Amino acid sequence: MVDAKVWRAEVRAWLEAHCPASMRLPITPEEMVWGGSQLSFASEDQRLWFERMRERGWFAPDWPSAYAGGGLSAKQARILEEEMLSLGCRQPQFNLGVWMLGPVLLEVGTEAQKQQHLIPMMQGRVRWCQGFSEPNAGSDLASLRTAAIQDGQGNFVVNGSKIWTSYGDKGDWMYALVRTDPSASKQAGISFLLIDMKTPGITVKPIELISGKSSFCEVFFDNVIVPADQLVGQLHGGWTVAKKLLQHERSAMSKFSEGAAPSHDALAVARPYLYDQAGALREPIWRDRLAQLLMDSHAFTLTHQRVKQEAMAGLPISGPASIMKLVQTEQEVAKYELLTQVMGMRGLSWDGDAFSADEHAISRLLLLSKTYIISGGSSEIQLNIIAKRVLGLPG
Amino acid sequence: MGFLRNEEQRQLLHSAEVFLAAQSPVALQRRIRDGGAAQAMDLGLWQQVIDLGWPAAVFSEDDGGLGVGYLGMGGVLEACGRHLAALPLLSSAVLCGSILRSAGDADQKARWLAPLIEGQLRMALALDESGRHDPQSITTSARLDAGQWLLQGEKWFVIDGLGADAFIVAARLEGGAGPIALFVVAADTPGLQVQPLRMADSRNYAHLALPGVRLHPDAVLAACPDSAQALDAALDLGRISLSAEALGIVRYAFDTTLAYLKERVQFGVPIGSFQALQHRMARLYTEIEMLQSCVLAALDAIDQNDPQLPQLASLAKARASDLCEKAMNEAVQMHGGIGVTDALDLGLYVKRARLVQQCLGDGVFHRARYARLRGI
Prior knowledge:
The structure holds 2 protein chains of 2 kinds.
Chain A: H1 4-18, H2 44-56, H3 74-87, H4 96-108, H5 111-122, E1 128-131, E2 147-150, E3 156-166, E4 173-179, E5 190-196, E6 202-206, E7 216-226, E8 231-232, H6 238-246, H7 249-257, H8 266-274, H9 285-312, H10 318-321, H11 324-343, H12 357-372, H13 379-390
Parallel strand pairs in A: 1-4
Antiparallel strand pairs in A: 2-3, 3-7, 4-5, 5-8, 6-7
Chain B: H1 7-23, H2 26-35, H3 43-52, H4 69-83, H5 89-103, H6 106-118, E1 123-126, E2 141-145, E3 148-159, E4 166-172, H7 173-176, E5 180-186, E6 193-197, E7 205-215, E8 220-221, H8 227-263, E9 265-266, E10 269-270, H9 275-304, H10 309-335, H11 346-358, H12 363-373
Parallel strand pairs in B: 1-4
Antiparallel strand pairs in B: 2-3, 3-7, 4-5, 5-8, 6-7, 9-10
Helix pairs in contact in B: 1-4, 4-8, 4-9, 5-6, 5-8, 8-9, 8-10, 8-11, 9-10, 10-11, 10-12
């Protein structure tokens, strides 16, 4: 392989020449470019950055170039990732297909599946959503009941519903877990299917949350025909495929948070509410509570840095890495709880121009943040994982 | 910010673990406690530690030290916590050593610092005057009288004060109204009274009475422009060192509790299979990992001379103090009845943890300080 130093210099020079300055600023959720049939750009820089990275195959730099990947070695890809991080380059495309499904298809997909699905997602033409949770299968995912029965030609007839599908209304395709053998015990009767969201019989309904509109959807399947060749892995072997896929979840999630604009700087938002007109602290207790919040966040940031350094040094990190989701989401909730209380009545506004943008935002985020500690494995599930896998507690 | 120890620092940590496991078992701490000696430490153990060079660890080679830095020393202190070793490293090397280094002139360093680093003498810091750590509220006064310093006041909870060869005493100039100054007071100074204070962790704490003690004019440490700043910087090193010790104590309690949950059977199953206990252990694990990150960052900040050092010191000590309470309480509760017996070593750790929690500021103190440093 090319000498690492030479490669790093080459990559850095390319990024500096081709990543527009505005694509190196912290990103807000509204500025994320999602691939797919509804692809759109808010600025010329977004389009340039997207197309330049697509051309190099760097949406997934370590995939083979035969599937529109970058064809880099793992080490080269890591150097590219490090240089993008250090320059603050945004992700040019957000796509669960590339980050979650793609690596699994590369590993267990058929050649036809790779040809059919990898190239479009890498060109940013197809956006993927995830169909796992169901109304009666949340934390206990393996109890899912959406049925897929094979007809005479081996095609699957899907009936049932999925819930909490993020951007189900914008996804072109869904990777889903379905029950293909109702008589087998839980995990054993599940299969992993790829479903075209334009298939007749699919209805998508956005979910309104206590915070207002949301990206979560319900997806209903009424005799939806899925061709036999869209089965990934073995029939009834979907649980194994899903476990492989979830191994990529952590790195996918970090792509959402790395380079993200800080959600709300707690101190900056709180400051105007803390002091009276003479500059005295209204309630001294807020000093302690705000300090606690800032210190928790500081400790989390340090832990994040530590885990990264330890990973780079090849040290085992599965223990500390397992606490990240739990801590990060609970701290976000604690932040909005405290900010709402510091704002008093003003932190509970709903709409209208009697209130500031911060006040409206904090009020909604207090409610929305409740989803952070429920979705993607609730806090209780995270605690189970730490107790069993890290601490080795029985049961 | 670096969180990784180098080869030399890892070796030091490893040798500290091996040495303390062999030479400083908890049974030794029990014997010291039951023996009732006021000085509350094993002089043979201390001599071995001097021979290993631990008092010299944090000092640069130019100062006659080993130059392994605080990231290295932090590992030793964590091992001291884990093995409940009572050694005057914090009082002498960290607190007094740091003050002498920044505030002592060449003669004072030759007279006090060089032998301190070599372990030929040990010193203790006389600072607090009440039950709560409060370095701003010093009333001990110092004034010049007929060419000599006259010190008047009393000091409480002087860590490792009994048997110390000398003290660094913080006092206010101009008869108590002026800025803070630091004085070296030899233990045999006429008039100085050193009395033992018996605390829950059975360690060495002293009360100092200074009823108009007379000192030579060169007893004041005045080689730096701001003594209060030198004192505060030394206190931060002490706070971070205590946080490292706390990490060792808390990890001991967590590890023994985890092992107990796996072996203790009730209702026909190991009690560690109960989710009510599993989730509490998972939360403690999370807290301990976060403390570990804060302690490593703070230790590295000392070595790097990081301007964020005061913030990191308060961050680490606040978390360490809070966890010294919470993790130990949880350990006792999850052990059930045996957890409150003196036969179980855990109790000795609980008592030590409570003293570590209070020494040099608890969670409330350090959250308030952190808030001030962040401009709240």
